[in-house]
């Protein structure tokens, strides 16, 4: 297992590509990580009930609210939100 926490099945892409030779390639969500890009061990780590995948799925406004008690993060997100 490589360091970094990525899903090894999809190499952290969250999707798998299937070559269809004479047709356009088909892309499907990785069955191992369900498109979340990280391995189960990494996804088990949470902060205030959210995994890294959950945090990355937040909108800027949702992230600003989530990190409201972390001044440095919140101020940067607030700039993006305004």
From TrEMBL:
<keyword id="KW-0234">DNA repair</keyword>
<protein>
    <submittedName>
        <fullName>Excinuclease ABC, A subunit</fullName>
    </submittedName>
</protein>
<keyword id="KW-0547">Nucleotide-binding</keyword>
<keyword id="KW-0963">Cytoplasm</keyword>
<dbReference type="GO" id="GO:0003677">
    <property type="term" value="F:DNA binding"/>
</dbReference>
<keyword id="KW-0067">ATP-binding</keyword>
<keyword id="KW-0227">DNA damage</keyword>
<keyword id="KW-0677">Repeat</keyword>
<keyword id="KW-0267">Excision nuclease</keyword>
<dbReference type="GO" id="GO:0006281">
    <property type="term" value="P:DNA repair"/>
</dbReference>
<keyword id="KW-0228">DNA excision</keyword>
<dbReference type="GO" id="GO:0004518">
    <property type="term" value="F:nuclease activity"/>
</dbReference>
<dbReference type="GO" id="GO:0005524">
    <property type="term" value="F:ATP binding"/>
</dbReference>
<keyword id="KW-0238">DNA-binding</keyword>
<dbReference type="GO" id="GO:0005737">
    <property type="term" value="C:cytoplasm"/>
</dbReference>
């Amino acid at each position: 297992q490589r360091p970094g926490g990525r899903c090894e099945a999809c190499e952290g892409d969250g999707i798998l590509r299937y070559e269809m030779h004479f047709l356009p390639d088909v892309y499907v969500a990785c069955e191992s990580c369900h498109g979340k890009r990280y391995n189960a061990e990494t996804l088990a780590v949470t902060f205030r009930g959210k995994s890294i995948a959950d945090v990355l799925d937040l909108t800027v406004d949702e992230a600003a609210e989530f990190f409201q008690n972390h001044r440095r993060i919140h101020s940067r997100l607030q700039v993006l939100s305004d």
